[in-house]
Design a protein that fits this description.
The protein is mainly α. Helix content is 76%, strand content 0%. The chain has a single domain, classed as MetI-like fold, CATH 1.10.3720.10.
Length: 275
Amino acid sequence: MLGFIYLPIVILVVYSFNNSRFTGVWQGFTWNWYRLLLTGSGGTFPETVGFGRYGLLAALGNSLVVAAVTTVVATGLGTALALGLERVRWPGRVAVEALVLLPLVIPEIAQGVSLLVFFTGVFRLWQQWGGGQLTLGLPTVTIGHITFAISFVTLVVRARLAALDPRWEEAAMDLGANPWQTLWRITLPWLTPAVVSGALLVFTLSLDDFVVTFFTAGIGATTLPVFVYGMIKFSVTPAINAISTLMLLASTLLVVLAWGIQGERGNGGRKEWQT
């Protein structure tokens, strides 16, 4: 089963070094496709210069901006939501918990279509009220990413928060700390590994997302996954393998970093509390 899942990925990486314009015919090793993407020079493939550095860097810049804003906003809101769900009992809490899980279970294409309908309706009302004309762009893509990213942060942070013994917070308040001091001195330091892990996970998901981005992006809001999709429509060359390999490498490093931070900080935190 693992071979069935990962063998196509290995083949994709290997053929990113293929010295041929056709992805299914191996004609030797080359770095030309990576040189094309990073420098705009196609080497022995001058007809593919249109897929070079400038379009790639613009798409990469859009992806990084969207991912960075999404990470900051979703991490803050998701952490606050996790604290509210885990530490406070209030009416409607069960309904909110269900809403948090909803983006994780509904198909991503349904999210994309619903966001497109929502933005279209809001833009129409805004124009009818004399507010001017609004169009899809990077702000709508960012809002779309935040809507599903909050759920991931909430789940990661809440799982960490559940492992915190409430008696530590009670002891801090018994010693004279107010709720804000307890939050900053006890709760948030304990949650730091989960917050960082959730942020890295959200950054990875936002950087790789295609479906939601495709439905919420407008002119000039092309992100890296959408850019790759546009390359596929024109010509299927190993350049697609190369850019997919780079995206795969970046995503893997971020996920491994998130797991490492959560594991190391988690073990260190347990030893510190025991001490």
